[in-house]
Fold this protein.
Amino acid sequence: MTDIRLKLEAELESVTTLITSKSKEVISAKKKYDFSFTLTILAPTAFFLLQICFTWDSLVWNPADQSLWAGIKDTFSFSIGTFGVLAAITGMLGFNHRAKQLDLQQLRASKQVIMAELQFDLANKQFITSQARENLKLFYEHESIFEKQLEHVSSKLEKLHGEPMNIILDSKHIYNSLFPDNSPDSGVIDHDPKWPESLGGWTKKKYGSFRGYVQQIKDYAKEYPLISNNTDDFEYEANALIDIYNTIAAIGFNKYLEDDAVKSLATQFKYIQDIVFTLDYFVALKVITIEEKTQALDAMYNLFGGLFWPEQLNIGDTI
């Protein structure tokens, strides 16, 4: 329960108590007004009738006598004065009743506003809950579709290369890497896979595009030492290969290689082949273009001194 809801419920309880109290005051004020109004009519009338009864023999009634009309005020001054006093009191009581009625109406209006806010808060929570469920449903549906797409790509690549892929796919890890903004809470924000923006390379830098990955390979080739010793030459290539390989492995394709994983030209060629297969996945998933894949292959060719070439791996340009 949110703080604002607790505050609204406290205000609602307070207003409800005030309405109950004010309603009693209005009823009491109405009774006083009704009593005073009745008394204002009956009391002067009673005094008037009593005065007529007691003074009937001395009363002279001559409608044609103007002085008689003028003397009515003096003759019945007590009844008229009583009416004036009671009328003034009744008026004050009426104003008091009306004021309490207005206060009660304002309190009821405040109660309606608070109840409307509570209903809005409840509706908003229901919407958030419904939206959260919908986001959760869409996320897992999208994740499932992507996993099936990975299976479909794997099948097509196996047919293309004529052999099974030697790549371990962590589909959930790959999904989270290529769709970084999607989650069970936020739902599906990214509909198309993209190269991870925060992927870190072997130089400990962050780059957010496949072009940056290719540039890292080119930089490795530029720093290639002129070593005549074949052992040192192979060790440099092996370290470079492990770095290049592990960068893609961080996305979810294959497991990380240890520093001593590349022990021979045969294993070196195998891991290079795995990288090329992974590039085919990227092309099929439309993470990179065929042109970008070619740039990566050229950079790797320059780095590894012609150890491999796409034709050697029986790799086509399309899937």
Notes: Confidence is low (pLDDT under 50) at residues 310-319.
